[in-house]
């Protein structure tokens, strides 16, 4: 039986995945790497430095910058991102999410956060959702980022649950891969072509209701 939910943050609970994209797009322009939707999708769920390396590798520029220069570019991206985050409020919670969290809490499901973002505590604070996520995996403590299963495995562990008792919710292909590798049931939010590996798919968070999840769990051959 499902007893817990392990949530990604950016692009699932809130619309910050577009903020991350905007902030990286500015850096890509600066280093002369062409930005497109595929690159934006490939960066979802990926840690800050891995993201920068992926952008540079797009144009075989990964060896053109020293470690110091890369750190400066990553810091610049984070400054861009923090400017966007500073404007955030509960209005940035994606459709249906507040209702879902209320339902899950009322029904006694355990919740944890498995976000790759070091900014997740700040974002949760702006959203007013800190009380729902008292348990989160610290991304700084991970050996491997998404798509490695480590983060979602830890998301179950901090709830004292087996992965099989958990549903993981993700908007990134790398995140769905992490959930599947951890042995949890995966829900992908977004384009079913990008998230083909998910056990269950919803095109947007408005469809992510407890009733729809239960129905999909019964329909899916898991
Ligand atoms: C993930 C985002 O949640 O966090 C990525 O999907 C981001 O786009 C990653 O790169 C790391 O975030 P941060 O805030 O630590 O740079
Ligand atoms: Mg995400």
Automatic annotation (TrEMBL):
One of its GO terms (molecular function) is beta-phosphoglucomutase activity. It holds the Pfam family Hydrolase. Keywords: Isomerase. This is Beta-phosphoglucomutase. NCBIfam families: bPGM (TIGR01990), HAD-SF-IA-v3 (TIGR01509), PGMB-YQAB-SF (TIGR02009). InterPro entries: B-phosphoglucomutase_hydrolase, Beta-PGM, HAD-like_sf, HAD-like_SPP, HAD-SF_hydro_IA, HAD_sf, PGP-like_dom2. It comes from the Bacteria. Belongs to the HAD-like hydrolase superfamily. CbbY/CbbZ/Gph/YieH family. Its EC number is 5.4.2.6. It is an enzyme of class 5 (isomerase). PANTHER family: FRUCTOSE-1-PHOSPHATE PHOSPHATASE (PTHR43481), GLYCEROL-1-PHOSPHATE PHOSPHOHYDROLASE 1-RELATED (PTHR43481:SF4).
């Amino acid at each position: 039986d499902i007893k817990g939910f392990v949530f990604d943050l950016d692009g699932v609970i809130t619309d910050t995945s577009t903020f991350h994209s905007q902030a990286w797009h500015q850096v890509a322009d600066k280093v002369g790497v062409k930005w497109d939707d595929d690159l934006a999708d490939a960066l979802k769920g990926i840690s800050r430095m891995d993201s920068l390396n992926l952008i540079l590798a797009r144009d075989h520029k990964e060896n053109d910058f020293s470690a110091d220069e890369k750190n400066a570019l990553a810091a610049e991206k984070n400054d861009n991102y923090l400017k966007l985050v500073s404007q955030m409020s509960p209005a940035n919670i994606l459709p249906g999410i507040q209702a879902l969290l209320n339902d899950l809490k009322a029904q006694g499901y355990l919740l944890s956060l498995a976000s790759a973002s070091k900014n997740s505590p700040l974002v949760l604070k702006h959203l007013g959702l800190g009380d729902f996520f008292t348990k989160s995996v610290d991304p700084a403590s991970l050996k491997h980022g998404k798509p490695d299963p480590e983060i979602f495995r830890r998301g179950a562990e901090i709830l004292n649950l087996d992965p099989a008792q958990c549903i993981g919710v993700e908007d990134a292909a790398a995140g769905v891969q992490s959930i599947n590798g951890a042995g949890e049931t995966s829900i992908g939010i977004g384009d079913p072509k990008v998230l083909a590996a998910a056990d269950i798919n919803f095109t947007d968070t408005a469809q992510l209701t407890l009733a729809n999840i239960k129905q999909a769990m019964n329909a899916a051959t898991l």
